[in-house]
Amino acid sequence: MARQLKKILKKVQPKPKTPEKPPEKVGKDYLLIIIFSLTVIFLVLGWSNFTAYNRALYFALIISLGTTYARRHFNLTPTQDLWVERASFLAMISAIALFVAVLYQQFWA
């Protein structure tokens, strides 16, 4: 009788499902931190020797690396994650375009 009552209660009032947690982003990303640090150091040390294109290129790289680190290690909402992903993609595209512009300026212009 008790078993039948439990089955009926489960059908009438099912237990609420707990929402699944997103998978945790693990890892320390030492390589990413080292590359980020070297980029900042190169920007600071080479500031007087860089053209405006070079400075913009390094800023785009810093933004791209910073947003990549933020996506991996900060608990962002889905909306924030989308915006950070877009900013990272835009920074990468602009870094590539600036790199091509610097190459053109140095070797062909």
Describe, in plain words, how this protein is organized in 3D.
The chain has 109 residues and is mostly helical. The protein is built from four helices and no strands. The longest helix is centred in the C-terminal third of the chain and has 30 residues, at 78-107.
Structural class: mainly alpha
Helix content: over 70%
Mean pLDDT figure:
88
Helix count equals 4
Low-confidence blocks of residues: none
Give the tally of β-strands. 0
Query: What sequence of helices (H) and strands (E) makes up the elements?
Result: HHHH
General form: rod-shaped
Main β-sheet: number of strands, strand sense, barrel status? Answer: none
- As a percent range, the share of strand residues is under 5%
* Through-space gap between termini: 90 Å
Radius of gyration over C-alpha positions, nearest whole angstrom = 25 Å
